[in-house]
Amino acid sequence: MIKLIITDMDGTLLSDKKEIDPSFWGMHQQLMDRGIVFSVASGRQIYSLEATFADIKQGTLFIAENGTYVRYNGEDVYLNSLDTTYLPQIIETARQLEGAEIVLCCKNSAYVEQSDPAFVKEIGKYYHHLEVVDDLNKVEDTALKVAIYHVIGAENRIYPAFSAFKNAYNLTISGPEWLDITNITANKGTAVERAQKKLGILKEETMAFGDFLNDMEMMQAVGHSFAMKNAHPDIIKVSRYVTEKDNNNNGVVDTIQKKIIQI
């Protein structure tokens, strides 16, 4: 029996247009009627997730910032704050990388040094609490993650520049253009395990949907892992199942309706 269903956002629940299919909301009500907890696990900020799901915020489990922050019914369940020992070096490396943009993701807000309106507007889609500062090293907030963006690509352009930090931090390619730097112990899988313990739900009672490399540990932490049809090949390899439909054809809702609601 499934008691917890977790889904990634971008490339999974959301279409490429960043939209949630209207059928999701009716499906969610059916899950609630069955006593099944719904959860979102994303690299996005907690405030962004709570705003997107404002109508169902109560009862929804939020796993934010790629597993560094978990909140349920207004209670902080888990917080994996960033070891800032090498944070100044990380920030300086990003500053020297041509074309890279850096976001310091903290508990209360996200922070950027870039004041270009177009960049701030784009980042604001993912970080509803966002501040522009002169120097990221002077931010006084609990750091959770460093997110680095490069339009050319994360795997080829960003990751090599930060490979020197791979033994001290978890370097996760969270999207085609994004690299996330968190504590070595921080990932969606660890967050899911903490949530399962909090809720008294077993691995075998948990279902998850994901599409990209930052979903790797999450897929391994659940008994029923579904890689999206459009998923990265490495996610398909570690997942138990693959959805029949991709994110642009409502693959998450379609699978839940067939496997859980059975309509």
Which secondary structure elements does this structure contain, and how are they paired or packed?
Elements: E1 4-7, H1 9-13, H2 23-33, E2 37-41, H3 46-52, E3 61-64, E4 69-72, E5 75-79, H4 87-96, E6 100-106, E7 110-112, H5 117-123, E8 130-132, E9 143-150, H6 154-162, E10 169-175, E11 178-183, H7 188-199, E12 206-210, H8 216-220, E13 224-227, H9 233-238, E14 241-242, H10 251-261
Explain how this protein is built.
An eight-stranded mixed beta sheet has the order 5-4-3-2-1-12-13-14, with helices on both faces. A six-stranded mixed beta sheet has the order 8-7-6-9-11-10, covered by helices on one side. The mean pLDDT is 95. It has two domains: 4-80 and 186-261, Rossmann fold (3-Layer(aba) Sandwich), CATH 3.40.50.1000; 87-183, 2-Layer Sandwich (Hypothetical Protein, Haloacid Dehalogenase-like Hydrolase, Chain: A, domain 2), CATH 3.30.1240. The longest helix is centred in the C-terminal third of the chain and has 12 residues, at 188-199. 32% of the residues lie in helices and 25% in strands. Strand 6 and strand 7 form a beta hairpin. The protein has ten helices and 14 strands. The chain is globular, with a radius of gyration of 18 Å. The protein starts with a strand and ends with a helix. It is α/β, with parallel strands linked by helices and 263 residues long.
**Structural class, from helix and strand content?**
alpha/beta
Task: Write the CATH homologous superfamily of the largest domain.
Answer: HAD superfamily/HAD-like
Chain-averaged pLDDT? 95
Q: How many independent structural domains?
A: 2
Q: Largest sheet, if any? A: 8 strands, mixed
How far is the N terminus from the C terminus?
Answer: 17 Å
Spatial order of strands in the largest sheet: 5-4-3-2-1-12-13-14
What multimeric state do the chains show? single chain
Strand content: 25-35%
At the first level of CATH, what is the class of the largest domain? Answer: Alpha Beta
Specify the number of helices: 10
Shape: globular
